[in-house]
Amino acid sequence: MRRYREDSSATLQSSDIGMLQRWPRLADSGVDQEFLAWLERRVRKISCSVDRIALAEMRSWHLDASTGNIKHSSGRFFTIEGLHTRTTHGTVAEWSQPIISQPEIGILGLLVRKHNGTLQCLIQAKMEPGNAKMMQLSPTVQATRSNYTRAHHGSATRYLEYFTDPQDHTVLVDVLQSEQGSWFLRKRNRNMIVLVEEDFAVDDGYRWVDVRDLRRLLRVEQLINMDTRSVLSCLPDGERGEPDTTRLLRWFTGVKSRHEVATRRVPLRGIEGWRYGPERITHDSGLYFDIVGVCVTAADREVLEWDQPMLSPRGQGVVSFVVKNFDGVAHLAVRARFQAGVLDAAELGPTVQCTPANYLQHPPRFLDYVLGASADRILFDTVLTEEGGRFYHSENRYMLIEADEDFPVALPPEFCWASVHQLEALLRHGYYVNVEARSLLACLQAVRCGA
């Protein structure tokens, strides 16, 4: 198989990269030494590599002759299709793009237990082909339906039964949540947290960790994966009563009602503005993202070798909430985020969510404010990666910025102040809070508990 490299990061080898070389900030994380020793063992044990290959050279995926859509030979997993969008929102009224279509619902499941008066989470050290540092800390179960029903003919998913058949266990969280609406077409995953009481043997690839330590590790770049952040954000934070969300939801409904977003599937080959080649699909401007192919070998996965297409973003993104206290209560400046791939046109997103390189002439509102924040107003600032199973080296700089006295109390029409408690209440329901905002809420949990 011919393999090509466009830069020095195109091929990744894991065999001799130590824990502190991958995540230097771990040394100052305050996490106990037993956990660090376990993580070092896992880093040294994994053996995997990811090579960029031409789309035309993928063995298990084929390019449909009539549409150019990219499909797996089994008909399972996901497809890469074309999507055409028309909208009355924003400055661009119409466009076409590649998009990942994955209609099946996966499980993102976290087992928790009470141990010595502390809540602990069972996490796993998992390799994903799109991770720049290969391994990350994932939920107990992170699997698509194709994977956990073993469409790949690989090994079974560990601990799956706790989520498909909880029986006498206490289910703390069970909610369908969306993922990146600009890159996925109506993708949903079942976010679950299950409380267990009995002891059971834990495989070496898994580890119980205090929830406080897990939140503390969010400050380590590219260590806690997107799925863990999403589930962790849904973890109930005590019994504080139900907040009044009437005003917030009335504003949100009004914003959605003022705009239309109409989408239709189109053949991937020939969509306007995109170049479709045998090696990759890319935008004429060189911006946004590419569709690329990878070949993967991994000793610790259900399947030892496979190839697949991936979405490779161009440039690092910025995702940020501006935080302001009103009468001692922390509020976040949320934005109604319209995206082509979400189920209901828009979800509640962060104050800023963009890739700055895509907006050099007209930066999004408040981007300059966030990037220009003084050090004393930065509550959280860490580069975290997105879904490593579908996105290749997708990185966002996650930031929480404390507003100064000059930040406006009266926000533009597509923004609204929402208390943290209100957003946490909405997380008990699907399709209100987008995945980037959920990641930031997990980061905010770390700040609030002093982690």
UniProtKB/TrEMBL annotation:
<dbReference type="Pfam" id="PF03559">
    <property type="entry name" value="Hexose_dehydrat"/>
</dbReference>
<protein>
    <submittedName>
        <fullName>NDP-hexose 2,3-dehydratase family protein</fullName>
    </submittedName>
</protein>
<dbReference type="InterPro" id="IPR005212">
    <property type="entry name" value="EvaA-like"/>
</dbReference>
<feature type="domain" description="dTDP-4-dehydro-6-deoxy-alpha-D-glucopyranose 2,3-dehydratase">
    <location>
        <begin position="246"/>
        <end position="444"/>
    </location>
</feature>
<feature type="domain" description="dTDP-4-dehydro-6-deoxy-alpha-D-glucopyranose 2,3-dehydratase">
    <location>
        <begin position="33"/>
        <end position="235"/>
    </location>
</feature>
<dbReference type="InterPro" id="IPR038153">
    <property type="entry name" value="EvaA-like_sf"/>
</dbReference>
